């Protein structure tokens, strides 16, 4: 059984779910190590405190999160860890239901409660540590979250419930963060968000994704810049000339169309038709020669018929 000491607390962060959660865990790690009262370890066997950053989006992800919490609840009962903390989307959405069922968890924190989590561990949140984040996925590439939350009304998605409404980070803030990553050896930055095409509306009154990409591409030492999660509805075509003119912006676009049947697109509340989707994709391919397009498709939505799949 581990006994409490007055030495720096050893923390291990377990990250489940998407790349947005990966960024959140990296921010958490930089805050903990910057606070100088905690050391962060990859191996959970070396840790006194376990923080589980959960996903609550689809059933399989929820089950993985719950199974992981239960696994470390057993570790807590056996006395092999001192503290068990749960954060992230599952905690945001279900903590009131889960906390009575798993009393071994010391604290449950939602997606907007990083300062409270840090305070529980005796650390003050420091905004100046933003540019000190280190990539946990590679020495050469990193994800960078340009906004949080989503204003889209898609019928199949619970992201607004867990992440709130769309909130952009400022261009200056993101440039400073990117410069910090590049100083740390990062060569490729992947821009992520729940919806990157909304970037800037809340801060500047208009979409500013093209300006952000232009500013980021000028950072010395940044070799690749790649855009993810660009929705086809109201796609900001201003990014295409920037993509063409800047050699370090990859001719690559992650554009989730989800479906191509008008019937299902309407039921999904995607705000676009098959014809308009094809127009958007045709224009992108015409304006950026050789662009690689990545997408996701969703089948099995309520109201989908065989002819919709065909």
Describe the structure.
- The chain is of the alpha/beta class and 310 residues long.
- It folds into two domains: 9-128, Rossmann fold (3-Layer(aba) Sandwich), CATH 3.40.50; 135-309, pyruvate-formate lyase- activating enzyme (Alpha-Beta Horseshoe), CATH 3.80.30.20.
- Helices cover 37% and strands 16% of the residues.
- It has twelve helices and twelve strands.
- It has helices at residues 19-34, 59-77, 89-98, 114-120, 159-163, 171-183, 201-204, 209-217, 239-245, 262-268, 274-287, 306-309, and strands at residues 9-15, 38-40, 49-54, 83-88, 107-108, 141-145, 147-148, 167-168, 188-192, 224-227, 249-254, 292-294.
- The strands form three sheets. The chain has a five-stranded parallel β-sheet with strand order 2-1-3-4-5, with helices on both faces. Strands 6-9-10-11-12 form a five-stranded parallel β-sheet.
- The mean pLDDT is 91.
- The percentage of residues in β strands lies in 15-25%
The general outline is globular
The helix/strand order is EHEEHEHEHEEHEHEHHEHEHHEH
Number of domains: 2
Helix content: 25-40%
The end-to-end distance, rounded to whole angstroms, is: 59 Å
User: Are there runs of 5+ residues with pLDDT below 50, and where?
Assistant: none
CATH class of the largest domain: Alpha Beta
Number of helices: 12
CATH topology of the largest domain: pyruvate-formate lyase- activating enzyme
Number of extended strands: 12
The rounded Rg comes to 21 Å
Quick one: biggest sheet? 5 strands, parallel
Just name the CATH architecture of the largest domain.
Alpha-Beta Horseshoe
Helix vs. strand class: alpha/beta
- Give the CATH H-level superfamily of the largest domain: tm_1862 like domain
Mean pLDDT: 91
**What is the strand arrangement across the widest sheet?**
2-1-3-4-5
């Amino acid at each position: 059984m581990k006994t409490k000491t007055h030495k720096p607390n050893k923390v291990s962060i377990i990250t489940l779910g998407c790349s947005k959660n990966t960024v959140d865990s990296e921010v958490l790690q930089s805050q903990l190590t910057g606070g100088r009262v905690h050391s962060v370890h990859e191996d959970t066997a070396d840790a006194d405190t376990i923080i589980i950053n959960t996903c609550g989006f689809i059933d399989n992800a929820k089950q993985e999160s719950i199974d992981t919490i239960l696994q470390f609840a057993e570790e807590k009962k056996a006395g092999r860890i001192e503290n068990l903390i749960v954060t992230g989307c599952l905690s945001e959405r279900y903590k009131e239901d889960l906390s009575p069922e798993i009393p071994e968890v010391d604290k449950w924190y939602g997606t907007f409660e990083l300062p409270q989590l840090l305070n529980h561990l005796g650390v003050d949140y420091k905004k100046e540590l933003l540019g000190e984040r280190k990539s946990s996925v590679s020495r050469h590439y990193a994800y960078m979250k340009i906004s949080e939350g989503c204003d889209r009304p898609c019928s199949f998605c619970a992201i607004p419930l867990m992440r709130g409404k769309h909130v952009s980070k400022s261009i200056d803030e993101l440039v400073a963060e990117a410069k910090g990553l590049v100083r740390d050896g990062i060569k490729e930055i992947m821009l992520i968000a729940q919806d990157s095409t909304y970037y800037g509306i809340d801060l500047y009154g208009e979409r500013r994704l093209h300006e952000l990409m232009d500013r980021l591409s000028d950072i010395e030492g940044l070799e690749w810049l790649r855009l993810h999660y660009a929705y086809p509805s109201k796609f900001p075509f201003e990014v295409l000339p920037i993509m063409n003119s800047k050699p370090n912006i990859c001719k690559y676009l992650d554009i989730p169309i989800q479906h191509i049947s008008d019937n299902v697109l309407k039921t999904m509340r995607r705000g676009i038709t098959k014809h308009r989707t094809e127009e958007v994709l045709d224009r992108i391919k015409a304006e950026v020669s050789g662009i690689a397009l990545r997408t996701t498709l969703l089948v099995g939505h309520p109201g989908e018929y065989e002819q919709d799949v065909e």
